[in-house]
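Schema walk-through. Below, the input block comes first and the output block second. Nothing else is stored per chain. Lengths vary across the set, and this one has 235 residues.
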Amino acid sequence: MTIPFLKRIPMFLTAQRRLMTVHDPVRVADAQYTYTFTGWDPAISCDFLTGDITYKAVFSSVVNNYTVTWTNYDDTVLETDTDVPYGTTPTYDGNDPVRVADAQYTYTFTGWDPAISSVTGDITYKAVFSSVVNNYTVTWTNYDDTVLETDTDVPYGTTPTYDGTDPVRVADAQYTYTFTGWDPAISSVTGDITYKAVFSSVVNNYTVTWTNYDDTVLETDIDVPYGTTPTYDGN
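--- output ---
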């Protein structure tokens, strides 16, 4: 049955009001794109419907941008790249990061963690370093600073050893010396170091002989310490 023209006008207006109150379709953004509703396919016509029809929402798309942050091993920010498009391979524009050597290690920059790849979201790249244990020189000296032995390329953390025979300090008139160890006490290597031989000392004792004019022995005092003033105890 054909609907009279005047009766079709309210129906058309009702449909138009219904379209005006409906929210635009939405397409949720994905990692690569942000979407904006732009209309329908096919375009809506003011002509009267002539049959069943399907209108499909149409969206424009914009490539998303992300932030790439580059940090050193200690999380210090070295560079921040903003507005990096999805799918772009980021690049670090500064000089290679540096990690200052400490007592134990010397460091060499080897790359980034994670490995650099196309941008799919905000990301932080952290500098990665290889490390080599530092070597040091251990010097062994006698009490008078005479070098007894020099050990080079001794790794950090190693307990050094002296490979020679025990050092000697020749007795003098006052003392006899005995080797007792090293100063400072031997410990794990943390840098170049010199160990100096340490000696205990014992005061020397002597014999004092008292004789008469004709060399007859009047008295013999033994074990008289160096520096003592001797006394004759006889008549």
